[in-house]
Amino acid sequence: MMLSVNKQFSRHLRVIHACEKGATGVYWGHRWVAAWRYPDLVPSLTAMHGHETEHYALFGQLLAVKNSSQVGLPILWCAGGILYGVVTALLGRRAIWKSTAIIEAIVEQELLAASEFFQAHDPQVSAAIEKILLDELQHKEQAQAQSLGWATIDAYIEPMAVAGAQLSKNLAEKL
Ligand SMILES: [Fe+2]
Ligand SMILES: [Fe+2]
Predict the structure, then answer these.
(1) Is a pLDDT exceeding 80 seen at residue 135?
(2) Which tens digits make up the pLDDT trace of 72-126?
(3) How far is the CA of 98 from the centre of ligand 2 (A)?
(4) Alpha helix stretches (DSSP H) within 66-174
(5) For domain 5-174, which CATH number applies: 3.40.309.10, 1.20.1260.10, 2.70.98.90, 3.40.1440.10?
(6) Cα–ligand 1 centroid distance for 52 (angstroms)
């Protein structure tokens, strides 16, 4: 079934908004574990968490300006993100970076698709997406650089990261 342009418009906005909230939770969870197990990672994770908080606020403003509704309870995305972030961080520092590299690559693809849609329908939203994409790319590249090659833990992290990102998006479309 083909969604109307209006429905696609608000769906993109609410998915990005909710998933940014989820991202704040993931980095918060990673940082919480890193503070006692891998303190050297704290500055990077704090910077990334700060970016996600900005992205969430930016898309909150856009939802209001465009009269689109947010997901029912954004706190659920935050809580789910924290749970995911803590569990993955407990699997080790490589797990943090591998998970980040995978999720940020998915985020990049989603944002590129959304940006393409908004280029045709709303240049203001498209510009906002292009702006946050720069941060997401930096997150992805930093995480990839810290998780080069292959390790056994990747076999566990990959399906978790993909499922987590998919669940976050699917729920945001429905709730
Ligand atoms: Fe983000
Ligand atoms: Fe990010």
Answers:
(1) yes
(2) 899 999 999 999 999 999 999 999 999 999 999 999 999 999 999 999 999 999 9
(3) 13
(4) 74-90, 93-121, 123-145, 154-174
(5) 1.20.1260.10
(6) 4
Q: Give the span between the Cα atoms of 89 and 45, in whole angstroms.
A: 11
For residue 132, the ligand closest to its alpha carbon is: 1
Listed by start position, the domains of the chain span 5-174
Measure 134 CA to ligand 2 centroid, in angstroms.
9
Question: Is 62 a residue whose pLDDT tops 90?
Answer: yes
- How many A from CA of 38 to the centre of ligand 1? 23
Instruction: Kindly indicate the confidence band of residue 175, based on its pLDDT and cuts at 50, 70 and 90.
Output: confident
Cα 149 to averaged position of ligand 1 atoms, centre (Å): 25
Cβ within 8 Å of residue 161, ≥6 positions away: 88, 98, 99, 102, 103, 106
Both tokens of 147, joined, read: 């998780």
Task: Give the ligand whose atoms come closest to the C-alpha of residue 16.
Answer: 1
User: What is the tens place of the pLDDT at every residue in 137-163?
Assistant: 999 999 999 999 999 999 999 999 999
